[in-house]
Amino acid sequence: MRPGTPERPLRVAIIGSGPAAFYAADQILRQKELTAQVDMIERLPTPYGLVRGGVAPDHLKIKSVIAMYEKTAALPGFRFFGNVEYGKHLTLDELRAHFDAILFATGAPTDRRMGIPGEDLAGSHSATEFVAWYNGHPDFRTHSFDLTQERVAVVGAGNVAIDVARILCLGPDEFDETDMAHHACEALATSRIREVWILGRRGVVQSSFTTNEVRELGEMKHADIVVRPDDVALDDISHEELKASGRPAMQQKVDLMTGFASKPLENKPRKLHVRFLVSPVEVIDDGTGKVGGLKIVRNRLARNADGASVAESTGETEILPVGLVFRSVGYRGTALPGLPFDERKGTLPNEKGRVKETPGIYASGWIKRGPTGVIGNNKADSVETVNTLLADLAADALPSAAQPDASAFEALVRERQSKVVTYAGWQRLDAHELEKGKAVGRPRWKVTSVPEMLQAIDGE
Ligand code: NAP
After folding, report:
1. Which of these, 25, 35, 86, 206, is most buried using a 10 Å CB contact count?
2. According to the model, what pLDDT value does residue 1 have?
3. How much is the pLDDT for 13?
4. What residues line ligand 1, using a CB cutoff of 6 Å?
5. Is residue 171 part of a domain?
6. Whether the Cβ atoms of residue 381 and residue 368 lie closer than 8 Å to each other
7. Residue nearest to atom 18 of ligand 1 (CA)
8. Among 278, 306, 331, where does a domain finish?
9. Considering the domain boundaries, does residue 454 fall inside one?
10. Hey, which residues does 81 pair with through a beta bridge?
11. 272 with 165, same domain?
12. Residues 50-101 pLDDT 10s
């Protein structure tokens, strides 16, 4: 009998609990004429992936998307298994025995590297590490950053670079409006950082910044935005690309940056410089194994064989006197045990979400398409994957689970991990964090260690 009936529900495991995972669960559980059960398996005790651990702590509005995920979690057939790790507590074969389909939405947990000398010196970090730290991710809570430095470079012209630079420029009087982890508030409150440079290797037109994020740079309370007029003067390639894009948002971004270039400084205590057409070539050792500067080279735009615009070195170098470097040149997916992996893209090789050569296995979100797009883009991405999955179900192409009993799977998980966190458990932790936040006049007080999370869940 084909699964999907009340007698024999379709059993789907979703690995990961970020936006792509929740949109996929929602799409499966809201199908008319299909009875399905979705078990969501998450390594951390907390759900929501980058909405909790990646979105900037001063962007609370973006996090309101969680209300949608809460509705999904309330749908019949949904279960959450937090604090359970794929590959550690459960193997692929075990999941195959219990589920008709397994959908991976594990995101892109690591970062790309710059590939330049000195990248591993003390004081040279990945933006992903810093973001996870200020957002209270348990794996990063004990990391430390030398905030006694006065100058910092953030390499990359994407929204993560903007987030990192903006957070470095916040003042302690602004922390109460954020859900930033307490350890980060304490460390940043005594920060001596005065100047931050965001470095884009191509021009403003080619930058990955989105308009809203650029606009916010002009609204910082404690930092002036500094842009050189020469850096935002468009060359022929940029003019062509701007015209060809036909996107008003692109023009707005250029206009905002051009506006910053002529904006008088307001003598705020910090300066955030945005530079274009420069690439880092070496992180300079100060003689003690720490960052003593960043050597950058000026670029011009050129076209490669495919006609795409690329940064071409002019050979003209300069040294930025920074003591801290964050590389923010993109996230990267990691290989998953038992599954194929596209090393070049850092993704599960797939066609419309169906992982190649592995029937019954699907992918959604960044592990499917690479680390691009904002939260909302994951909806269409997950809908596509679920449609592929449902087409395979209709074509009897899903390998049927040998043990489709939901209680048998729960028993297996509990045998492997005695501290499973259910959705109700997460809701207790959520309430605890909100209450503690309220008591100190903040939107949330994040619990940042797994034992403390488990204590808050059990202890209420
Ligand atoms: P991204 O948007 O892909 O930007 C990466 C940047 O790094 C690009 O400017 C890229 O330049 C540059 N880069 C790559 N390799 C480089 C190198 N070797 N040297 C110098 N520069 C290099 O990545 P992201 O900032 O990590 O963001 C990931 C995704 O999350 C994006 O889709 C972003 O929009 C999204 N996000 C959204 C928000 C928000 O909505 N508020 C906040 C954070 C993140 P090239 O273009 O020349 O390759």
Report:
1. 25
2. 81
3. 98
4. 114, 155-161, 163, 200-202, 206-208, 210, 213, 279, 328-331, 371-374
5. yes
6. yes
7. 114
8. 331
9. no
10. 41
11. yes
12. 999 999 999 999 999 999 999 999 999 999 999 999 999 999 999 999 999 9
Nearest CA to ligand 1 atom 4: 158
Same domain, 133 and 230: yes
DSSP class of 290: B
Domain containing 348 equals 10-109+333-421
Average pLDDT, stretch 256-276?
97
Closest protein CA for atom 35 of ligand 1: 374
> How many angstroms does the Cα of residue 374 sit away from the middle of ligand 1?
11
In a domain, 459, yes or no: no
- Kindly give the distance from the C-alpha atom of residue 451 to the centroid of ligand 1, in angstroms, as a whole number: 34
Angstrom distances, CA of residue 11 to CA of 6, 32, 337, 409? 11, 16, 21, 11
Pocket test for ligand 1, best of 134, 155, 329, 377 (most atoms within 8 A of CB): 329
Residue nearest to atom 3 of ligand 1 (CA): 330
Q: Report if residue 431 sits inside a domain.
A: no
pLDDT digits 0-9 by tens, 375-387 = 999 999 999 999 9
**Residue 386's CB: how many other CB atoms inside 10 A?**
25
pLDDT over 60 (residue 460): no
CA 267 to mean position of chain CA atoms: 33
**Ligand 1 centroid vs 101 CA: distance in angstroms?**
32
* Pair (385, 348) in one structural domain: yes
Q: What CA–CA distance (Å, rounded) separates 99 from 360?
A: 9
Separation of 389 CA from ligand 1 center, angstroms?
30
Instruction: Give the chain's length.
Output: 460
Count Cβ neighbours within 10 Å for each residue of 254-285 and write b for 16 or more, e otherwise: bebbbebbeeeeeeeebbbbbbbbbbbebbbe
- Kindly report the number of other CB atoms within 10 A of residue 67's CB atom: 8
Same domain, 266 and 298: yes
Residue 155 pLDDT more than 60? yes
Q: How far is the CA of 158 from the centre of ligand 1 (A)?
A: 3
Neighbours of 229 (CB within 10 A): 10
User: What is the 318 CA–ligand 1 centroid distance (Å)?
Assistant: 23
**Which residue, among 349, 345, 337, 339, has the nearest Cα to 371 in the 3D structure?**
345
Among 50, 154, 159, the mutation site with the greatest number of ligand 1 atoms within 8 A of its Cβ is 159
pTM to 2 decimals? Answer: 0.97
How many helices and strands (H and E) does the chain possess? 16, 18
